[in-house]
Design a protein that fits this description.
Homodimer. Probably interacts with PlsY. The protein has helices spanning about 20-35, 45-50, 75-80, 85-95, 105-115, 155-170, 195-205, 230-255, 260-280, 305-320, 325-340, and strands at about 5-10, 35-40, 60-65, 100-105, 130-135, 140-145, 180-185, 210-215, 225-230, 290, 295-300. By secondary structure, the protein is of the alpha/beta class. Helix 4 runs parallel beside helix 5 (about 105-115) and helix 8 runs antiparallel to helix 9.
Length: about 350
């Protein structure tokens, strides 16, 4: 690719605040993370979003004439709009002109485009969207997958999610021997529906992961687990609920702490602490979710993503590339086939 710097292709037309917030986050990432940025989309709109007299430097605008709207059926739109920004961005990864891709646009379209253009990693039946949650243990996140790619999952898919999640937790999040849990309605092995019981057995028998049992809802943020697997229906509900709870708590703190003279004084003194609370709880600090299982580093962001989220998503993409997450996952499956 001619450069040793990590090159990130950005779908500049994806998201509620595109391209303005996308461009702002990308500019910050270029400066602070030392990455090359490929902004994909309508050149006129992208250039209009750049600050005056911006020196592109390690940034390039790649033309894409179309974009996929949030209300479009993803697979049909991806196939029909071959020159859509998400497709052009994926093609850059496929052609090895970029190391990773990020989009805050239609998540279904991003997944469909990744599957059609990059394909799945050998040994992976279904890719999964994994996202990082904070826990009550400072500096100890938990990776939850799937959070939306697969509404229905066979037990084998959940086993594969655990393998991929363990590799990501170990090599990107720096967790030694990641503890894996299966999201369920009880701790006992026999709890849950038939799929959960069979998934539990597969996870327990897989020597490539450190499976420690079922995780109940109250365990997700406890810090007891490093990786938690579930189907995409449950995972997406969990994700949206956790985001809402975090926003509610932050809003309550903003409203209640400054009440009265003592509250105003206390709020001023606690400002650094409140900033750290926000950093631990705010989903914007994590940036995006990794699409694990496709043959390329792909991150999917919230449709409402603004510049800080874009920056953090690019940071996550860079970390995944730097830590060779694709190669690590593939080596796990190679070991599994050889041991099997």
């Amino acid at each position: 690719m001619g450069s040793t710097r990590v090159r990130i292709a950005i779908d500049a037309m994806g998201g509620d605040h595109a391209p303005g917030e996308i461009v702002a986050g990308a500019l910050r990432a270029r400066e602070e993370l030392g990455v090359d940025i490929l902004l994909v989309g309508d050149p006129q709109q992208i250039e209009a979003a750049l600050p005056p007299k911006t020196n592109l430097g390690q940034m390039e605008i790649v033309t894409a004439q179309e974009a996929i709207a949030m209300d479009e059926e993803p697979l049909n739109a991806v196939r029909r709009k071959r020159n859509a920004s998400i497709n052009v961005a994926m093609d850059l990864v496929k052609q090895q002109q970029a190391d990773a891709v990020f989009s805050a646009g239609h998540s279904g379209a991003a997944m469909a485009s990744a599957l059609l253009r990059l394909g799945r990693l050998p040994g992976v039946d279904r890719p999964a969207i994994g996202t990082v949650f904070p826990t009550i243990v400072a500096g100890k996140p938990v990776l939850v997958l799937d959070v939306g790619a697969n509404v229905d999952c066979r037990p084998k898919f959940l086993e594969q999610f655990a393998v991929m999640g363990s590799a990501y937790s170990r090599y990107v999040l720096g967790t030694n021997e990641p503890k894996v849990g299966l999201l369920n309605i009880g701790e006992e092995d026999s709890k849950g529906n038939d799929a959960a019981v069979r998934a539990h057995q597969l996870l327990r028998e897989n020597s490539q992961i450190n499976f420690i049992g079922n995780a109940e809802g109250r365990d997700v943020l406890s810090g007891r687990f490093d990786v938690i697997v579930c189907d995409g229906f449950v995972g997406n509900v969990l994700l949206k609920f956790a985001e809402a709870v975090g926003e509610v708590i932050l809003q309550i703190l903003r409203e209640e702490l400054p009440q009265g003279l003592h509250g105003q004084i206390g709020s001023a003194l606690l400002k650094p602490n409140l900033k750290r609370i926000k950093q631990r709880m705010d989903h914007a600090e994590h940036g995006g979710a990794l699409l694990l299982g496709v043959a390329g580093v792909c991150l999917i962001g919230h449709g409402s993503s603004q510049a800080p989220s874009i920056f953090n998503a690019i940071r996550m993409a860079k970390e995944a590339v730097d830590n060779q997450v694709l190669q690590r996952i593939q080596s796990q499956y190679t070991l599994e086939r050889e041991s099997g």
